C-alpha cells in the first residue's frame, strides 16, 4: 500500500526553515526531510545530517564486496560523511540523493541506474506507485494506464521535473519525493544496499575506463582512489590527471601530485579523501594495487 506523508515546517534556532514529514496512519515519529536553502538564485532542500546507523561503514559490506567496500569509502566521506539520506534539490541536477550524491541530470548516469534498481525492490510501489520500469526505462503510469517516458539516452529532464518541478521554490511534489527517498533509505536496508551496490558497480566500471586512459595496471589503490574521486567530483580534466601521474613509477609522487589538483577551491574535500585513505592504510585495508586483467584489486 502506498505510503503517504503529512508535511510540516518550522523555523530552527539558527533561523533556517526545516521541513519534516510523518507517515500518515502510522505511529511513526516525524522525521526531517531537509532544510530550505538558496544557491545561485535557486531555492531547494538540503539534508547533510548524519544519523547513527544510517552512515556507510565499509566493514558492513566487505563480506559481500571485498576491498571495493573500502575503495569507495574516501569518496563517500567526502560526499556526505557517509550519510545514506544525503539530499539536495537546489542545483542544476534538481534532485541529488545518496551517500555518494547521485545526481539526476545525467542520462543513464549514477542516479538513473540507482533509481532503476530501486524500482525493482519489492516495496517500490509503496514509495513511487506511479513510476514503473519497462525495458529498463523509467516511466510515469497514468490512472488510465498510459506510460510516459521520464528518461532516455539523451535526457532525464522529465524525471528531474517529476522529482522537483522547479528551482524557483520548494514545491509540494519536491517535498513528497524527498520524503519518500529519506524515509525509504531510513527504513529499508535494501535501499541502503542498493546505494552501495550502485557505487561499487560504478567505480568498477570507472576503473576499467580509467585504466584505458591512464594505464593503471599495478598502480596502488591510493593513487587509483584519488583519480576516481577527482573524476567523480569533476575537478580536473583527463590531461591534468595524466600529467600528475606521469612520474616514471614514483607512486608517492603521483599521489602527492593528485592531491594538489583542485586545492584552490576543494582543499577540504581533498583533505577528507587523503585522511580517510591514510586511516584505511594504517589499519591494513588499503595496501592493494589494481590488476587490469581481472579488473580487481590484489594485494601488493
Which consecutive residue ranges, at least 5 long each, have pLDDT under 50?
Answer: none
The helicity comes to 40-55%
Strand content: 15-25%
Structural class based on helices, strands and sheet pairing? alpha+beta
Determine the mean pLDDT. Answer: 97
Biggest sheet layout? 7 strands, antiparallel
- Count of individual helical segments: 12
| Order of adjacent strands in the largest pleated sheet | 1-2-3-4-5-6-7
What's the Cα radius of gyration? 20 Å
Shape, per Cα inertia axes: globular
The run of helices and strands is EEEEHHHEEEHHEEEHHHHHHHEE
**Count of beta strands:** 12
Give the domain tally. 2
Q: Ends: how far apart?
A: 51 Å
Notes on the structure:
This protein is of the alpha+beta class. The protein has 2 domains: 5-192, no CATH class; 215-299, no CATH class. The protein has 12 helices and 12 strands. The strands form 3 sheets. A 7-stranded antiparallel beta sheet has the order 1-2-3-4-5-6-7, with helices on one face. It has a 3-stranded antiparallel beta sheet with strand order 8-9-10. It has a two-stranded antiparallel ribbon with strand order 11-12. Helix 7 (172-187) crosses helix 8 (189-214).
